[in-house]
Amino acid sequence: MNSLAILLVLVAAVAADKIPDFVVPGQCPAVDESKLWTEQKPNHANYAGVWYQFALTNNPYQLIDKCVRNDYSFDGSQFDITSTGVTADGSLLKRNGKVYPNPLGEPHLTVDYENSWAAPYVILDTDYTNFACLYSCHSYNFGYYSDFAFIFTRSPSLADKFVKRCEAAFKSINVDTSRFIKTVQGTSCNYDVQKTL
Question: pTM of the predicted model, to two decimals?
């Protein structure tokens, strides 16, 4: 879905006096995307592999509720993603997506899943081997914005020192870390079954 379609949805929502709860007054925080892009672009190949979702902020577009496993494969220019896990009603679900350089030349990646719209994908911090702190923010007309944040890990658990790294990264751009909801992972998840989806 492109920005015009998003704007039309928001205009319709405003006309009906129903702004979605994830669209709030204000603007996206200032992020030094150029610095992050310069540091990270040469290391994109190191970002490939399996990432588990450790935590996220409220996100109606994340249809997988628990046991979220993301497999990133890198072809030298973009990532193909296969995300698997369990929905809120207990069903197994697989979603496919892509992460690629922003087509307008902005210094960040873009994430684009099936049945959703393309959105900014900013890696605020990562060591490539343990954790990644991801942020996406989109500004709308009339002084509103929506943002979503994730903490990814290379295994179903994450050491506290890496959680604190992500918390620091989000706090540095004034994202309230109390918004994060921990994702159920670990022994209750059957990752081998997910791989066969």
Answer: 0.89
